[in-house]
Amino acid sequence: MSDVLENPRGGCVLAGITDVLxxxxxxxxxxxxxxxxxxxxxxxxxxxxxxxxxxxxxxxSIPSSNxxxxxxxxxxxxxxxxTIQGAVDIMDADAYFVLTGCTAGIIGDDVNSxxxxxxxQGQPVYAIDTPGFAGDSNLGYEVIWNTFIDQVIExxxxxxxxxxxxxxxxxxxxxxxxxxxxxxxxxxxxxxLRVNTFFTGHQGINTIRRSSSAALNIxxxxxxxxxxxxxxxSRFGVPYIRYPGLPIGAADTERFIRQVAEALELDxxxxxxxxxxxxxxxxSYLAQAIGVxxxxxxxxxxxxxxxxxxxxxxxxxxxxxPLLTIISEPIYRPEDKDRIxxxxxxxxxxxxxxxxxxxxxxxxxxxxxxxxxVSLIVGSSNESEVAALKGIQFITATFPLKxxxxxxxxxxxxxGSLTLxxxxxxxx
Amino acid sequence: xxxxxxxxxxxxPGRLNDLGTTGEAAAEEFRAGCLKKADRSFAQGLxxxxxxxxxxxxxxxxxxxxxxxxxxxxxxxxxxxxxxxxGQAHRGVKHIRNPRVIVTNLDQKSVIxxxxxxxxxxxxxxxxxxxxxxxxxFASCASGIIGDDIDAxxxELQxxxxxxxxxxxxxxxxxxxxxSGFDAAFISINRYILEKKKLPRQEGLVNLFAxxxxxxxxxxxxxxxxxxxxxxxxYIPFYSSLEKINRIPAAQASTSICKVFADExxxxxxxxxxxxxxxxxxxxxxxxxxxxxxGIAGVTGKEKEAKEIxxxxxxxxxxxxxxxxxxLIGKRVFICGGTGRSFAAAALIDDFGxxxxxxxxxxxxxxxxxxxEYLNTIHKNYVVxxxxxxxxxxxxxxxxxxxxxxxxxxxxxxxxGIPTTHVLDMKRPTMGYDGLLYLGNKIADQLENPxxxxxxxxxxxxxxxxxxxxxxxxxxxTGGEQHV
Lengths: 428, 484
Prior knowledge:
The complex is a heterodimer. Chain A is of the alpha/beta class. Chain A has three domains: 13-152, Nitrogenase molybdenum iron protein domain (Rossmann fold, 3-Layer(aba) Sandwich), CATH 3.40.50.1980; 160-285, Rossmann fold (3-Layer(aba) Sandwich), CATH 3.40.50.1980; 289-424, Rossmann fold (3-Layer(aba) Sandwich). Chain A is built from 17 helices and 13 strands. Chain A has helices at 13-23, 37-45, 69-74, 77-90, 102-107, 111-120, 137-152, 177-190, 205-209, 226-236, 249-264, 268-286, 304-317, 334-345, 361-370, 384-390, 413-424; strands spanning 5-6, 27-32, 95-100, 125-131, 160-167, 194-196, 214-220, 240-243, 297-302, 321-327, 354-357, 376-379, 393-396. In chain A, the strands form three sheets. In chain A, strands 11-10-9-12-13 form a five-stranded parallel sheet, with helices on both faces. A four-stranded parallel sheet of chain A has the order 6-5-7-8, sandwiched between helices. Among the domains of chain B are: 49-194, 3-Layer(aba) Sandwich (Rossmann fold), CATH 3.40.50.1980; 205-305, Nitrogenase molybdenum iron protein domain (Rossmann fold, 3-Layer(aba) Sandwich). Chain B has helices spanning 23-31, 49-57, 77-90, 108-113, 116-130, 141-146, 150-158, 180-194, 216-228, 242-247, 263-273, 286-300, 303-328, 339-351, 366-376, 391-401, 410-415, 432-448, 451-459, and strands at 19-22, 39-40, 63-67, 100-103, 134-138, 164-168, 205-210, 232-237, 253-256, 277-278, 332-336, 355-361, 383-386, 405-407, 420-421, 477-478. In chain B, helix 9 (216-228) crosses helix 18. The two termini of chain B are 24 Å apart. In chain B, 56% of the residues are buried. Classes of the chains: A alpha/beta, B alpha/beta. Chains A and B meet through strand 1, helix 1, helix 2, helix 3 and helix 4 of A and helix 2, helix 3, strand 4, helix 4 and helix 5 of B. Strand 1 of chain A pairs antiparallel with strand 4 of chain B, so a sheet runs across the interface.
């Protein structure tokens, strides 16, 4: 189910899959699709994510069957076979994943059998038969994890009590994904845990294969990944917790830590100590710039995880006034919307913001224009137009983000909150 | 009877996209008619024609752009959106706008039941929200395969709308050559906006066709040069409007900045409206800029003035070019790029006395033959890779040919430690006489200071197996079945 949308954020299922394969180490997508899909999927996500691309393959370096009229009419399996053969011959990847474009999906090419034939010869080739038109990149993120669960992850591994899997931060779909994962890993590491982020520190197919040995799946997102998390639990017995939004700042990151600690029954002395150390680190900086940021009535526009995290940090920890939070990705399940609303309504002192669910840019612009008292917009590059019209402060902090280069900058966690605060500073 | 051009570039006889050869062999075999259509049994991703159709038009005023497609097919509009925003900043626009792009978001239901309802909804949204003068509807692979008759839907919708609703047939699977998308856009502009209605000729007005990839600095330089000839420029379609498009038939002549942009359309303008045109080269480098300038001067009766101006410009520029030449002479170059840019770059390096060792360009046809014959008079034994990018072939060739500099998309050659630069800078100057100096200094500076790429190559590997570099770069080009 998809709605007619103006300036939607991100690409199709293939784009979400490409996000994951591009961020993990040495995984090669193979597109069984029309001629432009490699570029489209890469440009849709990596192309608007702080100007960094996959270091392995992206866009025109992704193997593709480039289906033309002949394949549409006669089927494209032959073309796919030679494309996979070429890819395994020359691409130095640890695993290959065949993606199904609209063209292949509509004509019904049997990609699974083709991939199986290569696997029978010992080649790590896996097929994903969910076509591009099935949905957006968020769905793609879930689809590729379902593929990993169904075809790649090893069952029956002994549980490692100190190992956790981190889900819910979609690489590239969050421009700060690298930094955010690094910061959350750092924090969990201080608690004595080892973290599978899957996308940092050259983690790749072996990390994915062995992820069933984790003691806990941690989803950092208010709604995404429900299906794969349930499947992961029933298939491999790994339970999950959901932290509903990006934890930003001392207060929310403490909540995040305590939720993880409770689930894993971590040593409370260590937990308290880490929380105290980290909060001290943050406040020793905040103490050096008191009153430096002028008071703002703010609006946030972004995917649910970022919008919830940023709103809560600025309202709870920075005492700015939240007026409007716009969740700019399509979310259909009522319980997901309720969870997001609950999180935004449950603020410490501030009055909760108005909450709008709108993925259409016209609707987003209208909502922002109607909020006359707003003096700061934290949003994506798409909101630069309305911010300019309103003549108010604007920072780009959510996807799509085109006018900044983002390497390892984080907004999550303790240190990320300082970075976010730095970015909001305005000398005008 | 005149044939109707379909907009599919490979339908033109003698045009092919898959070939690995040398400059000399290519010229000879093309002359003898021995070059046959081939294919690649393994390939990397291409650019589809829909990307070009959308990018070409997305800076038009008072327009809404509807992609009748799943959400993924507007991925590449992110580049055009950025280009449009930056372009407005360069043009001094204070309130920078987003282009209005609406995607019908075809999904599983549409694939079964058709997408007509969604298309109607999208057009309705466009009208209610923006009251545009132009609504473009771009077809996609999905809309084409499921058989949505967008022409019929649009025709019906048009009766209820003041805005012109214009379908563009840029279904990705129909062409391997992304420039077909430019043709698809112009075919629709002619059919739905200009409608073969002739206008009184306005002496001195020229249509200058330019794609999205031309920087504002380059636009200003081209306009400056044409103004020197006493010509008024109708710059189309980048940053133009319905009003400017409507003036196209009034022009005295047409020219284009890019070899594969509006070339077919200019032919049509001559046939339908009697407007002569000049289709030469991309004005990068002294020779190409001269040629381009002579070309438009020739069809507007300004040869004498052009000759004089070129003389003056040479006097000003050539000493400066000679300085750059000292820094670049004899350096061996590999070039990759689109059709216009790659040949322009190849001509450009002649200004600087550089040696061509390899050239990647997307198509081979009559126009390419002309360029190759020219290059053959200067360079010997250079490799020609007819490919739409295909970086795996390029890195194989670059490893073997060991050029001193790589001109083109920097990503892969940089990881081999070779100095890289490019002639496609959508935000800064490259064209005309002044652009040449900027470009020459850029190439020379980057060549002299290659530290970044050298260090990068020590830490980063390309995604190819070592064994690939031992293989024939053109191993995957197959004679293939005779098709297309």
